[in-house]
Design brief:
single chain; 8 strands; alpha/beta; eight-stranded mixed β-sheet; globular; 9 helices
Length: 260
């Protein structure tokens, strides 16, 4: 474990393995980088680094002074000095994708597990339903919003979480809203013409069969624009497959590594 100032922000990160391939993973909202521990174990070919997003884990708080996804992408970019394997989950996948669009030459392979780039589904029934869900969350108090968010996207039922875990997630719901400028409105212009098409590294899009319908719509929209893409759906998995279906996720990451 290490801690330093990255992109002007206090950042804590983990490192696993001593493989020849440098890789970086970015976690989802309301979690921390520690859940990549289980994924890293069966991937000995990697030297894997994962940082806690601002306001998560042991990284410093987010002060709201800049675009949240932009800050996370700048932190990720600060680690990258040569072509690397990028892995992202949920919001973390949108960060990895933003870096890949901005600097495709820095990416050796790109594995995206359910990127919540809702803007990719704009104009679809699933996209409209997600806009309604966002408005509904905004009308709830932090605890109510967190309970609803976790029921849809989390790995464990809300009532099985400890009071301390519930309080921490409620406190971080402001970060979910802060990320909305990027996930709903594409503030980072990830979807700009020619952006996705410029990624020539192999991409793997992973989704859980039991995940919200918006996930499948997003992955289909992204796949249609990527030059070298594979897709995979994990039976019985939901949004938190990196926690609940570790073996399958690790095997799919390894498959994409072989393509690079």
């Amino acid at each position: 474990m290490a801690q330093d100032i990255r992109a002007g922000h206090e950042v804590h990160w983990h490192r696993w393995g001593n493989g020849p391939r440098p890789a970086f993973a970015v976690h989802c909202m309301l979690a921390s980088a520690s859940y990549w521990t289980a994924i890293a174990a069966p991937l000995p070919q990697l030297s894997l680094t994962a940082f806690d997003l601002p306001g998560h884990g042991r990284s410093g708080p987010y002060d709201g002074g800049e675009d949240y996804q932009k800050l996370a992408t700048q932190i990720l970019a600060s680690f990258v000095s040569r072509p690397v394997d990028l892995i992202g989950h949920s919001f973390g996948a949108t960060v990895a994708l933003r870096l890949a669009v901005a600097a495709p030459e820095a990416v050796r392979s790109l594995t995206l597990i359910e990127p919540v780039l809702f803007a990719a589904a704009r104009g679809t029934p699933e996209g409209a339903a997600e806009d309604e869900e966002r408005a509904h969350l905004r009308g709830l108090d932090p605890a109510g919003a967190a309970a609803r968010f976790v029921a849809r996207w989390g790995a464990a039922p809300w009532d099985r979480l400890s009071p301390a875990q519930q309080a921490a997630m409620a406190e971080r719901m402001v970060l979910v809203e802060a990320a909305g400028a990027a996930t709903f409105d594409d503030a980072g212009q990830v979807l700009r013409p020619g952006g996705l098409e410029a990624i020539d590294a192999p991409v793997m899009l992973i989704e859980g069969a039991d995940s919200p319908a918006i996930v499948h719509r997003i992955n289909a929209a992204l796949a249609a624009r990527l030059a070298d893409v594979g897709t995979a759906r994990i039976p019985g998995a939901g949004h938190m497959a990196p926690m609940t279906h570790v073996r399958q996720v690790a095997e799919l990451i390894a498959l994409n590594l072989e393509r690079a």
